[in-house]
C-alpha cells in the first residue's frame, strides 16, 4: 500500500513508520516543519524517497489543513491519522479540542474530496474516549463510551484531553454515517502507551506523557514516594499499538470497528518501579524503598479480544516494555 501518515514526529507515529516500512508499504508522513521531516528521513537514510517522504501540514486545526497532503501520484490506498495534541500544560481547553476535532473531520473531508483511491482511514483515538472515570462499568470493551459533556470539558486540562479524544472519535463516526464517503474507518483506542522512545525525535523534556513517569523514576524524582497511578491501570507497548494501526489498515475485516488495544496485565507505578529496581541495580537508589501497588481490588475488567482475533496482536509483557523503555531513556540522557 501507499499510506499517508499524519503527525509523523509523534511517539506512536514514529513506530508506525517503522512497522509500515518493515511490512513493505510506502509512506508519506506529515510534519509541521522541514526540520522535523528531515530528521525523520535522516534516521531512515537507507530508505529511498519513493518509499518514505514527507509533506508539511503546519496547523492541523485548520479546516483545509490536509487539502493538499491527501493528493499524491501514485495515489494513496490508506491513511493513518495519529496527529492530535496530548499534553496537559494548556491554558485553554480549546488548545486540545479544536486540533483534535477539526483535524480529524478536516482530514476525512479532504480524503473524500481529493483521494478517491483511499479505502481505509485508521484513526488514533484513546481509551480516554471509552473511560467513565466517575462510574466505571464492570468491563470495558468497544461498546464503551466516555459520557463527558462539553461543559465538563472546560473544567480542567485532563477533562479537555478526554473530551478531545471522545468528541473527535464521535465526529469521525458521524462523518462516516452521514457523509457517504468511499472509505471506511477503524479507530485504535489504547490506554497508557509505554515503550521505547525514538532518540532522534526526543529529548527528556518532550517525551510522551505516559513515559514521563519512567523518566521521573530513573531520575530520582520519586525517591520520597511514588505518585498515584491516576486510575488508568491498562497499558500497551507502543510497538504493539503501532502494529495495531498498520494491521487495521491492512485487514479488510477491521473496517467499521473500534479496537481497545490493551496488554494482558494491569499496571501500576509500583509494578514499573519494581521492574526498574530488579533489572537496573544501578538505579535502585533512585527509587523509594516501599513499592506498594495502588490497583484496587475491585478494578474494572476489560475485553481486548477483538484486537487479538481481528488484528492478530500478541501483546508484549510489562517487563520487556519497561526494560526497553528505560534503555531508550538512558540513551537520550536520563
Automatic annotation (TrEMBL):
Record-annotated NAD-dependent epimerase/dehydratase domain positions: 3-261
Keywords for this protein: Oxidoreductase
Leader sequence segment: none
Protein's UniProt keywords contain Oxidoreductase: yes
Matches recorded under InterPro entries: Epimerase_deHydtase (IPR001509), NAD(P)-bd_dom_sf (IPR036291), NAD(P)_dehydrat-like (IPR050425)
Gene Ontology terms for molecular function: oxidoreductase activity, acting on the CH-OH group of donors, NAD or NADP as acceptor
Pfam family, one: Epimerase
The UniProt record lists the keyword 4Fe-4S: no
Family affiliation: Belongs to the NAD(P)-dependent epimerase/dehydratase family. Dihydroflavonol-4-reductase subfamily.
The protein's name: NAD-dependent epimerase/dehydratase domain-containing protein
Organism name: Exophiala bonariae
